[in-house]
Design goal:
Number of strands: 6
Number of helices: 5
Number of domains: 2
Largest sheet: 3 strands, mixed
Oligomer: single chain
Shape: elongated
Low-confidence stretches: 50-54, 57-76
Structural class: alpha+beta
Mean pLDDT: 77
Strand content: 15-25%
Helix content: 25-40%
Amino acid sequence: MRQRWTSEEINLIRTGFLAGKLVKTIASEVGRTPTAVNKFLSRSGIRTRRWTIDRTRTRISSIDVAVNMQHPKEQIRTTEVVTKFQEVVGFLKANGYTVSRNEQSSFAPMCHYKLNNMPTSNVKMLLIANRLRCENHQPVFAVPELSWV
């Protein structure tokens, strides 16, 4: 049975999301599942994104991401670093991950790498690196062949 969202829960979700907290963390704070929080963020209009990457520049600064269309003054500012995938690999290695090529391509066709000895795709590696960068308040990586353009 669905429970109604209380105003306290809505405020916790909104402030947590705007502060850059993980959905999983927000969900545990409000006592809901991550799926419920994700659906609420999308359906309430708190999370709507417009991503652009300018391939002529190496760094994009202050891209406005509309957070709530009813309150356009509330916006998240983010920066992206347009880079090659090898820089992402180097960043992961510098942060204690072991990265190697996956020689068993028949085992997992899309997993061309191993991250900490687990078959992993390059897209998942980019997501992990960007999560680390967000947690450390660093600009996220945008790899043109892997990111939305």
